[in-house]
Structure formats: structure tokens, C-alpha cells
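Researcher: Go.
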Amino acid sequence: MTILAAAQASAQDAVWSFDIPSQSLPAALDAFAEQAHVQMLYKADSVRDLQSAPVSGQLSPEQALHHLLQGTGLSFQSGGPNTITVVTPPAEPNHESAPPARDRPRTEKPLKVPEILVKDVQEREGDVSYVAEGTKTATKTDIPLIETPQSISVITRSRMVAQEVNSVAEALRYTPGVQAEPFGFEPRFTFLRFRGFDATQNGLFRDGLQLRNPGFAVSYNLEPYGAEEIDVLRGPASFLYGQGSPGGLLNYITKRPTRESLHEVQFLTGNFGRHEGRFDFGGKLNDSDVLSFRLTGLFRESGTQLDQVPNDRIYIAPAVTWQAAARTQITFSAHFQKDQLGSSQALPAEGSLRFNSNGRIPVSRFTGHPDIEKQNRTESSLGYEVRHGLAPDWDVVHKLRYSSTELDGLTTYSNSFGTDKRTVSRFAYGSLGKLNALTIDNQVHGKFSTGPFQHQVLGGLDFQRITVDLRQTFGAATDVDIFNRYDYGAPFALPPVFLNQRVTQLQTGVYLQDQVKLYDHWLLTLGGRHDWASDETQDRMTGAPSRSQADRKATGRAALTYLFDNGLAPYISYSTFFLPAIGVNSNGQAFTPETGRQYELGIKYQIPRTRTLLTAALFDLTRENFIQTDPSAFLQVQRGKARSRGLELEGVASFDSGLDVIASFTLLDNEVRETANPLEKGKRLPQTPGQFGSLWVKYTFSGGSLKGFGIGGGARYTGYTYGDEANTFRVPSYVVGDAAIDYTWKHYRFALNFNNIFNQDQFGCFDRSGSFFCTFGERRTVVGSVTYRW
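Model: Structure:
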């Protein structure tokens, strides 16, 4: 039986379009299985440390796999319907007269070996590897990370498992160029800052579709257990994704259905009264490959390091994939998440960071009122993704997602510190709202050649419609003694409504990208996009006429990469961005969009025959036309200009010996160049360190009496920051240590993780009404977990 018989979805002489670059053999076999629509079977030991040959063009599956295995000494045979087994041929009795493996007649009997599903291999590879082979985030196409002409980090599931991350912010702690905790411990949502610029409202994506939250209040709080990986793209990305932050974006990749059986149950417990259960199931829905599913969920009841602040969650995410035809695949996905949280607590700097004659304010101090405090959020989404092959080398992708977020929040926060250094004045602030979003992205992918040039083309049309109904309340609350743990203040009236509005935002964009490869070494990436964006605000408090604004803008990217045979890939790129600036100036004219540009020079090195990726990037990023408040007239003006320059270094490796390493360092030089506030001109952006870095090392024994036992630890350094725009309040640097111990035995995994193991102080500080307040970073947390997989 030939390999074509295994691919029953196609005729025996069918020709397929293949494009598989040279890479590690396990990854290449996975790519072949996906493009040929078959299952690959192989032994992990037989393919480890081998490199595949490149495969490109119109070939039969049999021809393509012969090319792929050239130089590896391996062969293949049919393993049954839709199944191919990679085998090691028996030694030839006469090596001199034996023809090369690729030229031998294919009449020999297949060698029978025990079959091992590729799923088993993939999971072992994935569970021990911190290094991703590729990502679609930077280009929306399938190219290896080494060919991506922009600084990007991929946080794999295995990395999240090893570090037991429980929030997106925790997942980003060992990543260069990004800050997710600039204001300390924050249970409500994730702050995002890339290369010094905030992206909290417009830098979050889920499966390539934006999760924008206009107005900031009604935001998202993604569950990391539902993610297969988290991609961090640094630098402008408007040329593919439309309006966004100049610093970059985060793309949360959800867990997808799997054809192979997957069962996982996990129980966790930890300090602050944490109890949590999780499950992750996947596999075929019947005996065929037509329907497969994934069901992921968790239930958590937990306190936090703050009194009266819970961190409870219910999360469930089902997904089903339907292989409708040989080249048509449809995936339906949904999720539901319900959070009962609390607000972070900002404490006076005098008594937390600085000396106070009355003593030190307890880290756990809750400054609100337990009878009224709440942060209840409900998130849900429903969507689908269609992938269809039009013709050899051409296919289309259609994505659609409808999402909804509801927030019912009320918090009492500290506003100023009395002269007695004990009394804190407070205000009550509430946000009640609902955000609905419809997001669509249509893509066409194609490959063709013009002489020596190989083109990989992407064209797309996307659309977003976002509506936010928001009511906000505000009023005075009673004072408290900050040193009295049980002083919640005298009763006060609930704050009245001061804002009631509906915001509707629309965005339509068309984009085109061409990645041109010459002689397998030069790679030129050109991309451009044009956007039409509009914003309409209805004031439901006054009934005033709606205020509308429309913008249009073109953005682009150009990059050049050279691919050396030894794994080095230097590149240079130029890109632009835009972001609508909502509002009007003193003359009633709408603000023009924020704009900016970036130059980036980098190099990537993928050490051959290893799972190791080293990257370095130098960048010069400018943000212009952002809105500020003129302190002399208390009016909004569009005068802001800031520049961020720096160096980002990252190394990620997973060695066969069992050693895993993550190392990163960021050197950041940012400066306010133009401003309406003369006090901040030439100063550094607040809450932004000039340098930060991290190192994580974990070793897992692969043999002997300690087989399955792993131990690891890491350190995170953050340089000093400033708490105000004038750079008068300096917040000291700090180093935080983490540790992990785990043991895998048969189907069980036992783990103990420590974050901030030495309970080191860390602060995020800011100026509020002339008084400086600081929020503690995460205190020492201990989490124990038991996982059973079968």
C-alpha cells in the first residue's frame, strides 16, 4: 500500500501544495500532517535532533515526504487509513552497492514497528519545550519565528505550566519590553505597556481579533489556563491590525480542539485561602476525523494579599472543529467567565514606601468599605473560524467573534493624606456598563513565483463594531485612620451618577502584504493598510446631540531579512501606526489621529539541531499628537510627542538534557519631547524603568532514581522608576525571586510554586491630588497543585 492510500481524502495521484521550510524534524512532520491531512506516527527518539529538508511546490504526499526526509536516514510506510508511520530502514548488507534511500525502489516490504501517535510526541515535545517554532501574530501567515522581521516573544503552554501562572500579568514577567504590573498588584485587569507606551485599551487580542475597551472601565481579564500560548509583538502593528498602541500588542491564543485523546484534571491550593479545580478535555467526537472537540474550565475561590478583596472565578470554554471537506475546516468556539473580584489598594507613600513616624502601614490594608465594595465582571464570547483551500497554494480564512462584557463595580479609594500622617480622605467611584463587540477578519493567502522570487501574499478585509453603555458614579466618602485595620469609615451615601453615555466605534480596514524570498536567503516583507474609523458618543445625562468623529489613515511596514544557513537572521524594518484621538479642541474641531513611526534593527539566531532561539533588537520609536491637559487652561490639547529608544535581548532554550532557560534584558531610554506641561519636557515617562531583566532556569531529571523530578528558580530585576511626570518622586529598584519544584510520576504531576519567595517589597507609585500613593506588588504566594492526565 502506498502512502497515497493512507490519504483517503484525495485520489491516489492527487497533487497538493506544500510549503514546509527546513526546521526541526518533529515540527516539519507536524506541518506535513496538517498540509496533507493525515496522521503521522513516529518514535520521539528516532526524530529528535534531526533537521528536515525544505519542501515546496506541487507534489504528491509521497513525493513531499520523500523530500522532507532527505538526509535523515528515515523512511515511511502506511500505518492504516489516513495514517503514515516514519520508520528506520534496516541496515543494508552491502553499503557500497546499496543506492541512496531516496532512490531505492519502493517495492520493499514495510518494516513493522510499534505505532506511536504523533499526539504523544507533540505533547512530550510541547510540555518540555519553551521554544515555539513559529507564530502567525507578526505576519498573519505561517512563517517560522526566525523569519519574522520584528521583535516577538512566544510564551508557550509548557512555560506557563512550569511557572504556574495565574494571570496574564504573571505570564509576562519574564518577557522583555513589556510591563504588565506598573501599578503593583491589580486583580481587576491587566495593564499593558510595551516599550514604555500604554496599550491597556487597544493592545489586547484574542486569536488575532482585537479586544478593544473604549473608556477603560469595562475591560477584559483573560484566563491563562485557557491559552495555548501568548504572543507578545513589540512595535507598531497597525499595518495588519489597524488602530492600536505604538508599543505593540498581546495576542492570546486559545486552546484548540485536538483529534487525539486528551484528559487533564488539576487541583490547586495556596495561601490567602486559595482553592481551585481545573479540567481540560479533548479528542474526537466519533471514530472518524470529521469532528473533534476541546472543553476547558476552572472554578476558583480565593482571597488575596488584601483584606476583603476576593479573586473568585468560573471559566468554561468549549470548542468544536468540523473537517467539512479535505480542504475545509470550521472551528466553533465559545467561552463564559464570571469574576468576583476587588480593587487594588493604593496606600500613602509615607508609611508604605517611605518613613512614617506612626509606623508602617500593613500590606493587607483595605481602605474601602466591605458593605459596598464590588468588582463583578461577566465575560462571554461566541465565534467561528473557517479555513478553505481554493486551489493549490491559495486558501481563504474567515473569522468572526461576538463578545460581551458586563461590569458592576464600586470602590472607595484614598485621595489625600492628612497632616497627622494617619488620616486619609476618600472618594467613592463606581462603573456599571456593558461592552458588546462584533469583530470580523477575512483573509486570502497565496503563494506563487516570478522568476527567482517566491511570493507569499496576504490580503485582507476586517471590520469591528463596538458599543459601550456606561454609567459612572462619583462622590465623597468619609475619612479613615489608615493605621486602624478595622476602620472602614462612617456610613456615607452612595455616589450619584455623573456620566451616562453610549459610545459606538466602527473600524473597517483593508490590508495587503507580500513576503518575497530570493534564493532562500533574502526575505523582503512589504505591507500596507488603509483604515476608516468612526466614533459616536451619546450623552444620556443631558440629552445633548450625539458627538461624532471620523478618521481615515494609511499605515505600512517594510522589512528586509537575510537568512544564513547557520541559523542567523539579521533584519531591519520600518513601520508606522495610528490611533484615533477622541475629542475636540477649544475651537470645537475634532482631534486628528495619533501617529508615529519605528525603526528596528535586530538579529535572531536559531542554533541548528537544538530548541534554542536567541534574539536582539535595537529600536527607535516615536509617538506624536497624543492628547494632554494644558495645566494653564485645564483644556485638552494635542501637543504630546514622546520618543522611546532601547535594546531588547532574549534567549529561550529547552535542551534534551532536561534544562530549560529563559533570559531577557531591556534597556529603555524614553523621553517626552513636546508637551503642554513644561515640567515634564525632557523627562522620563512615569512608572517606566530604564532597565529591567529576568532569568529563569529549570532542570528536570530524565533518568535514574530522580527521573521526573524537576527544580527551578528565577529572578526578576526592575530598575528605578518615577511616580510623577516631573520626575521628582523616585521609586527604588527591586529584585524578586521565584522558585518551582515538581515531580511527574506515571499519569500524575505534583508541583509547588513560589512567587516572590523572599517577600521582597515592590511598588508602583503615582501622584494623586498632590499626595503620593503606592501599591504593593504581589507578595509571596505559594501554590501547590496535583495534575492527573490520561
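Model: The helical segments are 3-6, 25-36, 44-47, 61-68, 118-128, 157-163, 168-171, 238-241.
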